[in-house]
Amino acid sequence: MTSPSGSEQSERRYRQLVDLSPDAIAIHCQGKLVFINQAGAELLGASSPEELIGKPIIDIVHPDYRASVIERIRTITTDGKKAPRLEEKFIRLDGKVIDVDEMAMPITYLGMPAVQVVVRDITERKRAEETLRESEERYRKLVETAPEVIYSLAEDGTITTLNPAFESITGWSCSEWLGKQFIPLVHPDDVPLAIETFKKALNEEKLPPYELRILSKSGEYIVGEFTSTSLINKGKVVGEFGIARNITERKHAQEMLATSEESYRGLFNSLDDAVYVQDAEGKFLDLNEGAVKMYGYPREYFSGRTPEFLSAPGKNDLKATMEAIQRAFAGEPQRFEWWGIRKNGEIFPKDVQLTKGSYFGKDVVIAIARDITERKSTEGALTESEKRYRILFEGANDAIFIMSEDRFIECNDMTLRIFGCEKKEDIIGHNPWNYSPLQQPDGSDSREKALKVIHAALDGFPQRFYWKHNRKDKSLFDAEVSLNRIELGDKIFLQALVRDITERFQAEKALRESEERYRSLFDRMMDGVYRSTHDGRFVDVNDAMVKMFGFSSKEEMLKVDIKKELYFAHSDRDSLFLDTGREKIEVFRMRRKDGSEIWVEDHGHYVHDEQGNIIFHEGILRNITERMRNEVLQNAIYQISQSTDKAFTLDDLYKSVHQIIGTVMPANNFYISLYDKEKDLIRFPYFIDEVDI
Prior knowledge:
- By secondary structure, this protein is an alpha+beta fold.
- 32% of the residues lie in helices and 31% in strands.
- The longest helix is centred in the first third of the chain and has 23 residues, at 123-145.
């Protein structure tokens, strides 16, 4: 038996590289697809590459990009040069539009001029960027419409941001104080406390609510209740972030309001994997957006159901699944593979981890599921020449290494760019830990951890993991690494693909920080904060809202029919300002759980979808019941004082007083007594008793 020739080994290396590539690789000649790998078929929604062969290339390009793509193809074939990377949109066979990053270059295919393209699906990245923008917009809306002052201070104590509430409460314009020290605004007696809390915020110490007197433009001091915390940017404390509420009226009336407690939901919904909360019987209590996206069902469809309806027919042992849930509930973590079925009928595999957790004080099972379809998908076969192998190897978007044992023996040009090297000799002959910090972020030794995954890959177990690398200049970057064993002739090597994911990490971190800011503000609000559907159901409320209306829990309030249960008349809600489409402040009467009356001041707005349709009401409710009652009482006193001038006789005055008191409180049984100090006698000139009537 003879060893494979150099050409055959090259052919095999090319085939293995394409088979293992996570990117779509295709060749089109004279406007039609003549080759596409399995990853490309999956990207375009085809069952196999053969389904796409012969298809006009322009058919998969979104109409908005077709003219530019035609010109791009003409330029590549005419000039014979590699085209720069381009972001565009493709149309899958099922009609779904996806965002892609494409790189194209001219090649010769079967003696004919052709174009080879390497395409990466960036739909998730685009969606994450859009989600970040939406999150920032929600945060901005909440800050601008909040009735409390929302501010931030730099490390030196200068005011860096103020919301519009600062102007309406203090009378100062924001421009008069931005960039200036905050201390001159504080009452002299309160300055020590202000300095102490500011220092604690800079030291990341947790602060309870505290009160400061703030100077208004009129010269009077306003009493503010402050809730502040450390302002963190990129992991570093850069100042103080806080909310200040005007409690001057509340202090005068000696009222106290409780602050809300923190919630888990910001982190819960920021996870990419599906996360479920289940009781001991396996019934779903809660789930995140990842689970909704994974299965395609709305959130409410899961409530109270077990995993049985998500199980692919004949694919799972449901009895064993329930036993695993019971073991997890008893405190024994579980992990297994499970086959699910989406709403559209698609069957897919997922990796499931079960652990015991706590949910609003109750013991539960927390399940984390990851779609592993890509890992399970079969790999297609491909035959190509040494030239095409080298073009693909050098034109890849990722760093590609060939390793013998634990040393690099070959790399592509992208490796030099990613690792900041000038020549391949800077890489070849070195070990992976030579381009890694001493320790990985989890605290493990880089060399020991690298050897562990290398040995696992050499044993035939493909490895894919996160890694912290450093460039030649020692600057760090985040990477996603995959290791696969390949056979060339009678020798075994490793192929390593290193993808720089620094930008993706930064985008995900920015999204989490934005969501955390939004959720922190939501939970710290002293007034009720809500989000409801247009047909009258709450989607989310904070604890202050729950307490305001007398409910025992957030879950109980989320089940409320707003129009039927929180208004004394169903027509009240239809007449509110939200139905005008404009944002403003309204005062109206609502009903608590026990039926008692409550007066509220609403600061709210609509949330619209991309078509301009209303999808949510969002706003802040302030309890002004005591203020309204005081106004009624003051009005009654004023009317009584007016009656003393208008009454012709004492009997007329007594009757007028009785009638006015009846508007403030029940007065069916009523009398007026007069005391004669000289005779030490009490007279009852006016007496009404409904029993005697």
